[in-house]
């Protein structure tokens, strides 16, 4: 929640993306070498440092570092894709170059808001699961907050 507040990103959306990151086997590495709770390629550290005007993170496997950078990156992608969550999540999972290519080729539209037209099954499933878990978090926390009164 602190990173979501800092970068003005919906906290349940970030939590859903983190949940998807935890599905990776320890030490949380994807087949492409992405690491930690918010899977980020280890080679992306210098790019993040440049974009964020700070020194590169020492260890992306540290949960607080991973979540902070992952949240910042989700915000960056949202801005890049004009607040289109589907495209931002697709870029987070499949890479912005891939999503840009799909947009340029007309495979995806800048107005797409569901995962059904995403060509990569892994990326389409990622978008679907994050979207579904964000809704679950909304319901779950609304229900839990009712019990506090």
Provide an overview of this structure.
The relative contact order is 0.13. The model is unreliable at 25-36 (pLDDT under 50). This protein has helices at 2-7, 11-21, 45-52, 63-80, 85-94, 96-105, 121-147. It is built from seven helices and no strands. It is mostly helical.
Task: Provide a short characterization of the protein structure.
By secondary structure, the protein is mainly α.
What is the overall number of helices?
A: 7
How many extended strands?
0
User: What is the ordering of alpha helices and beta strands?
Assistant: HHHHHHH
Give the strand content: under 5%
Spans with pLDDT under 50 lasting ≥5 residues? 25-36
Radius of gyration: 15 Å
- Helix-and-strand structural type: mainly alpha
Share of helix among residues? Answer: 55-70%
Give the terminus-to-terminus CA distance: 22 Å
Broad shape: globular
Characterize the biggest β-sheet.
none
List the helices and strands and how they pair.
Elements: H1 2-7, H2 11-21, H3 45-52, H4 63-80, H5 85-94, H6 96-105, H7 121-147
Salient structural properties:
149 residues; mainly alpha; 7 helices
